[in-house]
User: Fold these one by one.
Assistant:
Number 1:
Amino acid sequence: MSCGLPAAPGDPEAALAPAHTGTPPASSGGGAATCARRRRPYFVACRSLPLLACAPPPRRRRSARVAIDRPSGAPPARSARVLLVAPQPFFELRGTPLNVLQMVRTLCAAGYEVHLVTYEVGAAVDVPGLVHHRALRVPGIHSVPIGFSGRKVVLDVALALRVWSLLLTRRFDVVHAVEEAVFFTMPAAKLRGLPVIYDLDSSIPHQLEYSGAVHNRAVLRVVRALERAAIRRADLAITVCQALSDVVRDVDARVPVAQIEDSPMEETLRDPAPGEVAAVRREFGLDGAPLAVYTGNLAPYQGVDLLLAAVPILVGRCPAARVLVVGGEPPQIEAARAALRAQHLDHAVVFAGQQPPERMAGFMAAGDALVSPRRSGLNTPLKLYSYMRAGVPIVATALPTHTQVLDDSTAVLCEPTPDGLGEALARVLADPAAYALRGAAARARVSQRYSREAFARKLVSAYASLLNGKAPRR
């Protein structure tokens, strides 16, 4: 599988140190639990929609939350109860829902009582110990596009009503709000005197700006101000990469930050079965072709347009080369095919469409190179950790979204231009063996720094540090 071309010639973990490790902290006899029992908010509820009938209870000063000392090995009187709010369709196979699923599994396995609140849209998941609350169904909305949309705004309103109802009627020890959920969750949680974790999977104003979803500068200023206010009032910020940790520290260096990078998808932790790689290539007519593989959705921020623009350069250097795109909705795939047909290049790109997670290991191993063509953004793409686990040479644009995790020893980094990407892919596909050491180095790095065990250790440590003797910020 060669193009016939000549071959081209340790970050420390950044999680909070835990005050205690092991069993989640139990609530003391006073604090939020006792207060919640004595002061029930007055409300009127019907089966489908709780309606507030008066102002929330007045703010009161509270003492720091301190875990009760118990003999080693003694079970807690009550597991810490977490309200985790994720403004996402759950479950769907995409970045943030995958991250939320891993957090839920980790916290439940550590003994926390997790109450997850999401949109009504999404498939059911079975996680022992998880209590899943869905927002009200919104008539006519059966799917949620990736990124900002009018549908997402409507679903956020339904989600906010569900969250407010839970905060008024149930007792929690900590509230964990993902992305924009912090804007409607934090005020209600603070009125109840609860500590709030702000989970930044991305910087919302930055995402709105680079995606082109919002062009109005006044709106962006308002969203930026809301994000900064949420950061300042957070008791803990959880980020997925260094760039987002820097965003938090630039706003307020006093806010504790737990940097908890993603880890490979569970389904990609296995090596492909014998014959699986050959079967993938046969299925899509790719036997013997030098092959670059892309996996993921086809949303604009992923840079798939850059990848397609690089195809003429790639094929010009390596006529036998092929690109396999795994993922995407049918209308997106058809639009991409039409654009390639207009350039007489539709033979060079094969679209596999959406595939089940359990096949991802086989698709990645089938490639001579794995490509991540993002041209903007701050957060590291989740797929990158699975790419690294595959041990196949990675070609990625030389932007912070990638270089926070990769460097020249673990990937081929290129300029985010069609020429830069096309030339880099051609070099790797000309002689994949020459870049095999980079693939092996990437696999070693993900095992050392970004394993599922490292993710769990950092998350549990962050929760323990917050709940053991931490007073809520006002």
Number 2:
Amino acid sequence: MSNEIETIKDPGLPAHVHRRADTDPKAAKKAERQVAILFLLSALGTVTLIGSYIFIPSDLFIFFPILGNTNAQQLFLGLGMAASLFFIGMGAIHWAKTLMPDEEVIIQRHEFRSPDEDREAFVATAKAGAAAAGLGRRSLIKRSLGLSLGLAGLSPLILLRDLGPLPKDELSKTSWKAGTRLITDPGDRPIRAEDLEVGAVAQTLPELPAGKERVLSDIGKDAVLLIRLRPQDFNLDAERLSWTHEGIIAFSKICSHMGCAVALYEQQTKHLLCPCHQSTFDVTRAAKVIFGPAARPLPQLAITVDSEGYLVAKQPFTEPVGPSFWERSS
């Protein structure tokens, strides 16, 4: 037995088999029409998706085999998107298998960075390949592909509407107005100054007009903490001190870092703490941040009492409550 290793012989390439569309113009035209039909079906799927989103009510349910009663809008949104992506993929595959060049090409290995002349040759080859793919002379495929791709690109833009209406100035406003009473949450009771002892804390919301219901999005902006200190404990400027009443000070409960509820009060240190990320606010210095990631103090609500002795807001908040957003100026 010989110990010599035999070299592997080059098996070569089998003879190239031409497809019918390569030699028969009628077959090529038929394949072109098939590809165009697939792209048009993709476009129809996108139109179905867009039409379903616009015209089918979101609360309409229909019976569908296997699925049972299902939401009609969601069903046709899914079917439309599935058809759009499926048929555009099928069209591309059928185009590649029947019309694009399929000659076997051998490329020798070379160093990673090609010489400049090879790079120029590659660009020329890519342009020649694009021409060979037939985009220039197969106008039907080009138009139907453009239609299906263009409509498919619209789908994400249409569905962005599901993010909800633009907030406009809703993030900058709350329900607090001059003269709005502060009521307990829960309980909905108006509060007098004598209801709070020194060191006491109360969570409040603005009193709503008769017949108006409170919505969750408003609660997320309107919640206010009342804290009573001894007036001599405050370290405030004259304006901020005028926003208090008999040692009672009011701050937004919404953390200026990430919008969590500032729910912890240390009576001894007179600090408000956010339990989410440990931002700490000094009540005696207008809720100045003394620790944690929050970048701004909690907004202070100016308060006074009405003719019946109940605590009311002097004015709305002078700045947006909660965390930062794009349109915020401070």
